[in-house]
Amino acid sequence: MESEIAFPRHWLSIRSSAFLRVVIMLCLIAPLALFTPRGAAIASPAVAAGLRNSPAGMVPGPVVHEAGPGADGPHALAHSSTDSCVIGRARNLGPGGAPDWSPSGDLLVYHAWDASGVYQLHTMRPDGSGDICLTCAAQPGAPRVDRHKVNPVWHPSGRFIAVQGEMDTNPLTLMNSNQMVSELMVNGLWTNLYVTTPDGQQWYRLTDYSNAQTDGAAHAHFSADGTKLVWSRLVEPASESAPWGQWKMLIADFVTANGVPRLEDIRDITPAGGVFVEANGFSPDGTKILFTSDMGNTNPWGPDIWTLELATGKLVNLTKSGFWDEHAQYAPSGKRIVYMSSQPYPFDLFKTELMLMAPDGTGKRQLTHFNVPGFKESTAETSMPTRANWNAKGTALAVTQQLTGEYPATRMWTLNFAGPCGG
């Protein structure tokens, strides 16, 4: 049991939504040390700019713009004019996070702060129109309106959306509208997994974790056929030997009987030696799991992207770079993987970009240039593009941009490729 909260020696290296992977805000609340990981506050909370009030809460402002044409520069990669993985269009959708495509590609689901600083679930069209808040009114079986709902993912059938929901009662209940505290729930602390229908009218809880200790669910992903769910469970607070906490990676059958979804046959598939283990999703054929881990790495500030072969347990480290690599996703074709990496900025602690690689880890290349002037997705702020989700055709990504100087504020983008990069 911790009697006080100490700052990790290398807290400045915390990155991405893993900025708060060690659940940083807890350094302000000494009595909660026995429940939660130790950490350090990185930046003062900032209210996301550009929000407007609406009956459904706070949603992105009305202006949805496309960036201008890109330009060659010192960081530009030498791609051919016929490269299908060049970004052809970048659209800034405004404040919000974790956007994910519906299977039909006509909607995005995402989370955004409401006027009270609570994350609510929304849907909108990919052009930013038609925004609907799914959780701004109470629904039977759903988390309370004043509790966070974060990190939504669509079921491949389009019938359900999986989401993390903050527990009704937890040690941070009275502070949950603090934006830094909200990031603890984004990173899994004291949340359960739910599924809801796309209209937000029906809710089903999938897990029942404890609010009396460090516990919670994060990083849920469906298999392409919709029959499996993989996620990570936070089971122990951070420590000197586990600066991001202790995690388990779990898999279960996703079953619907009489219209009611549930999990069956939950299995622990945490690799031996795994401490920080973040589920990133299934391969398109369902035979492998992508995950992020500091496993086998003496430097906890340089996690790698791994694959786990479900039938054999075979493990492959795809990056093994010493850089911060995280949030990997297979393209629908299985021919490419997109992931976040600090590799383009080895001497800058607060920048990342999205990268592409082949499924065997070869052919790594920088995809985005959020931090370099002159590109379609460039912005003035120092930032970390983190999660990137492919649409079903492999022609576009929905991206979360972490604004470093305004942490934990995030912005959403859609990036359309010049061709079927992931198809």
From TrEMBL:
InterPro entries: 6-blade_b-propeller_TolB-like, WD40
Gene3D superfamilies in the cross-refs: TolB, C-terminal domain
One matching Pfam family: PD40
Coiled coil: none
PANTHER family, per the entry: PROTEIN TOLB, PROTEIN TOLB HOMOLOG
Family recorded in the similarity comment: Belongs to the TolB family.
Name used for this protein in its record: WD40 domain protein beta Propeller
Organism encoding this protein: Nitrolancea hollandica Lb
Lineage, opening ranks: Bacteria, Pseudomonadati, Thermomicrobiota, Thermomicrobia, Sphaerobacterales
